[in-house]
Amino acid sequence: MLEVRGLCSGYGRARVLFDVDVAVRAGQVACVMGRNGVGKTTLLNTVMGLIPAVGGSVVFDGVDVTRAPTHVRVRSGMGYAPQGHETFAPLTVLENLKVAADGLPRSGEAIEEQLELFPRLRPLLNRRAGLLSGGQAQQLAIARALVAGPRLLVLDEPTEGIQPSIVAEIVEVIGQVAARGVAVLLVEQYLDVALGLADTVTVLDAGRVVHSGQAADLSREEAARLLAV
Ligand SMILES: Nc1ncnc2c1ncn2[C@@H]1O[C@H](COP(=O)(O)OP(=O)(O)OP(=O)(O)O)[C@@H](O)[C@H]1O
Ligand SMILES: [Mg+2]
Questions:
Q1: Quick check: 229 pLDDT over 90?
Q2: What's the rounded mean pLDDT across residues 166-192?
Q3: Whole domain around residue 122: which residue ranges?
Q4: Are the CB atoms for 53 and 9 separated by under 8 Å?
Q5: Engineering a disulfide at 79: which of 16, 89, 145, 214 sits with its beta carbon 3.0 to 4.6 angstroms away?
């Protein structure tokens, strides 16, 4: 579903990613790991077109989107929940979902599906997103990314700084989404969450891939070693 080849990008003259390859199949979770500042968010932002690629290619469902603007990628089926559970703070939970569902043929049903996936959001529909807890806001951010029915879901540290009970719910939802056939590209720092969900693992260090393979072939010890500071 997603094939990233030889990707290079950065900020101005500062190169951050060097020749990064990563692929995600439909119904699978590809986990990208690595210490703080190695370029995980830069990778996802480049995949989504928020940062231009300086080299390499991003192919989504057989279509080269390397130069496509972000809204075109989103419209073609790429959903993104960026790091830091961003939502529209002054809008209510329902308004946030409506904005994300705007223009969909069956937006009411699409929103209802998200509320079934995230039942905690239902009693909060009229609350302003800026007043949600971190975990609630993260659920809303994922629901917003899912509302248009993407074939690829891109998630940047969805469990960062969130209480364990909500982490478990988010992990459950990611598993369900993948089980429905959606490809998931997940940046995750927590080893247990990552190894629990991942089909494949890619480890970055200083903007380069230092490990790539099936999650089942990666022991906890080896993963911990790759991520050690
Ligand atoms: N807007 C920016 N302008 C310039 N440099 C940036 C910018 N954003 C990130 N960087 C730099 O790019 C490198 C990679 O940052 P990035 O945010 O991709 O790392 P990360 O792996 O997502 O880190 P974290 O685990 O803390 O989220 C870092 O050296 C960072 O300082
Ligand atoms: Mg990051």
A1: no
A2: 95
A3: 2-227
A4: yes
A5: 145
Q: How far is CA 128 from the centre of its chain?
A: 23
The confidence score (pLDDT) of residue 159 equals 94
- Pocket of ligand 1, candidates 7, 32, 41, 191: which has the most ligand atoms within 8 Å of its Cβ, to mutate? 41
The rounded Å distance from CA 10 to ligand 2 centre is 14
42 CB within 6 A, ligand 1 = yes
The SS3 of residue 46 is helix
44: enclosing H helix or E strand = helix 40-47
Structure tokens at 77: 């089926």
**CA separation, residue 50 to residues 101, 173, 174 (Å):** 21, 26, 23
Tell me how far apart the alpha carbons of residues 82 and 4 are, in angstroms, rounded to a whole number.
18
Of 157, 161, 153, give the one whose Cα is nearest residue 133: 161
Number of compact structural domains in the chain = 1
Residues 173-201, buried b or exposed e (16+ Cβ, 10 A)? Answer: bbeebbeeebbbbbbbeeeebbbebbbbb
DSSP state of 137: H
The label of the residue with tokens 């997103």 reads 129
Say if ligand 1 is within 6 A of residue 16 CB.
yes
Placement of tokens 């540290």 in the chain? 157
Ligand 1 centre to CA of 143 (Å) is 25
